[in-house]
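Final report, closing paragraph on structural work. Over the funding period we assembled a curated collection of sequence-structure pairs, and we close with a single example.
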Amino acid sequence: MPQRRAITGRSQEPRARFAEELRLLRDQRGLSLRALADLAGWDASLFGKMEKGQTLGGPEVVMTLDTFYDTTDKLLTLWELAKADPTQFRERYRQYMALEAEALSMWHFGGSVLHGLLQTREYAWELLATGSLTEDELEQQVDARMGRQGVLDGECAPPFRAILSEAVLRNCLQDPRMWRRQLEHLATVSERPNVTLYVLPFGAGLHGLMDTAVTFLRLPDGRTVAYVETVVNGELIEEVSRVENLQRRYDAIRDAALSPAASRTFILRMLEEAPCEPSTSAL
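Its predicted structure, as stored:
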């Protein structure tokens, strides 16, 4: 039975409904995006992306629009519904990848696994194979992940800074030879002029990003967004206050981490120590 269309004719999908309401309110005022930006004090490109459903924006900009349009908290309510919509997880990840491709710089902290831009093919395969994927889906996702790594190549490649918890470097692959190739890859990548790696040793103790991975992207429009990921979920954070809170936690971890030179020595020492015993099948 086909889905029944709403009597209002408006979209019932939360994100689309929010974007539609933003467009409607601006049209009713007869404003261009540039005019709205000048009057409301936010960037026109941000408003454009919000109206196209490409981003939700943060609560600060939504509350500004509620005040500007005199809509009490209507827009904020629609924003909260769109934010809570569980179908948005994949969409948020697609948004993150699009932003990653245009980022001017990237900062990352990994609490348990390596960032996709630092993974070898074998590492990506073993990690993604833990999910419920068919062989074809697994092959496609690994290919896509390897393709993304081109963002760090070339003269115009953005600066990439990654803090790796020691736990990341102790979570070995099943095949010691593949794990050795991954460590060698890290050592090689760390020599690139645009890549800086830090190791956060176990001795640093507890910190503000335990069991969390976070990546900050500085964008051409001056904004910084954060993508926070756990084993089962991911969230693209654009609210200024939340991003700044995460940045303070990140800065504290960087202060506790080994220097880039000492971190490289740490990785090379792990190569010498052969941290993973070969399994019977690997002999």
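The chain has two domains: 14-84, 88-282. The longest strand covers residues 105-110. We thank the funder for supporting this effort.
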